[in-house]
# Entry
Amino acid sequence: MVFFDDPNVMNFLGSIMGFVVLSILFFFSPRLMLAQISSSLEKTAMVIEGYSREARQIVMKKTSKKPSHDMKEKIDSFLDFFSIQPVTLDPFGAVKRIEHIEELTEKRFKYFVKRIAPKMSPEEQAELVMGFAGAVSLNQVSKIVRHYVEMIKKTKNVQLAMLLQMQMPMIEKMSKALLSGTESFANGWAVGDSAGGLVVARMVGDSKMKEFEEDTLIVKKNIKGRSVILVKPRGPGGRLGKLGKTVERLSRQKVAKIITIDAAAKLEGEKTGSVAEGVGVAIGGIGVDRSYIENLATNKDIPLDSFVVKMSQEEAIMPMVPDILKATDKMIGLVEKNISETTEKGLIIVVGVGNTTGIGNDKKATIEAEKKIKEIAAMMAKREEKEKKKGWFGF
# Structure
């Protein structure tokens, strides 16, 4: 007892115990941290895989109410579809090579849809093509996430686990948006990215558009005393059109200005549906169409004006929300004002950019589209509220 009453002995024992505890923590804390992170990553990976399965069911039900075993196998195989981007080490001719791969990919999707759903109308087939594009993207995301989760389990790499954990909230958010986008495309619902096409379709009025390039329509109108050519992808099926080639052909005439209207990614803190104007070509994607227009505008010294509706990346592929729909009214006023203030002589080309799913080709079609947009927005709001309640009560 005297031994343990000695303060020096107690201090020595305390130091040893502290060293032992620290050694245990130093050895086991990374393992505990890895186990905790791995468990969290596994749950999120399973959620994203669930989204991918839902997207598969959406396109499958759109294809057939009672799909055969053979059709299921064909769809499952096509969900692994990929395209390899061309070499860009030598930049000369890179745009043409990228365009070639892009067109081959589009043709392959169209061919597959025609093969499994030959009785569908062209508009329904276009919707299904976009639906498959969303399902393929989501399938790839789920496989990539699963790849890294399994690699972390295999290598016990804490640093890689922490990096993936930091990215997971954004990946899960985008995956959920892709699922919503797949549903929208497959059912022919207008999405946020359809704003440009909606603006131009409303400006068309009662005029009749004609096909000028593949999946691309034009009409010539007199707006504010100026000769204007309106361009948009053919709707209401999901299409992007050949906007670059169309504008290039139209520019063989004297062109005073090219105006592009599109959706644009907003910054955090910016309001969805806010409108901005600037210069340049407002066309997203790989950049083929933008390259066409920029080259001809540079060679011919044509002014380039652009108008965009701000929205998040997720909102661009999800069903169009009321704030974006309201912004189209303001956009039309700004475009018409720009036309009236143009002093250069020649044609003015106005291009409605974006996926034209759910958007027809004249004012009458847009009235129906706007009604549908409001109905879908109300339905999505109820669905979101139901999901919140489900989360609160845990069932």
